[in-house]
Specification:
With 137 residues, the protein is mainly beta. It has one domain. Helix content is 10%, strand content 39%. The strands form two sheets. Strands 1-10-2-7-5-4-8-9 form an eight-stranded mixed sheet, with no helix packed on it. A hairpin with a 5-residue loop joins strand 4 and strand 5. The longest helix has 14 residues. The protein is globular. The model has no long low-confidence stretch (mean pLDDT 85).
Amino acid sequence: MNNSVIEIAKPKIHIDAKIMAELKTQTDELGQVILHFIYFAHPLSEGNKIRIWPTSFLYDLNSSHESSLVYAENISLYPTWMDVEPGGQRYFTLIFSGLPKSCTMFDFVEQCSSQYGAFEVRNIKRNNTDVYFFAMS
């Protein structure tokens, strides 16, 4: 699914206030990493479907550390597909266990056996908030 991926500045994303407060507390206490996505479906394609496999990880590029997916918001987990209408968009959020403090760059890779490909974003430069925003199609 990595046809085109760009990192974006903070887009307007709506997540329930209670969930956001809980996530912020967990991020501060547990060092979790939050990836926000906006997925744009091709306008001429029928049957746009997305999902995330629980075998999605963050890989520290300077060590063998792998951060596991702990929560997915607004996207279905394998094996269930989620429809995205042609030309439509879907916002979703993935939360991962923390990265080592020494990590400066990492990859996000969905390990799957899907014929449609996998979500992935390579060479993400770590920031001080561990919150990231991406757009993909």
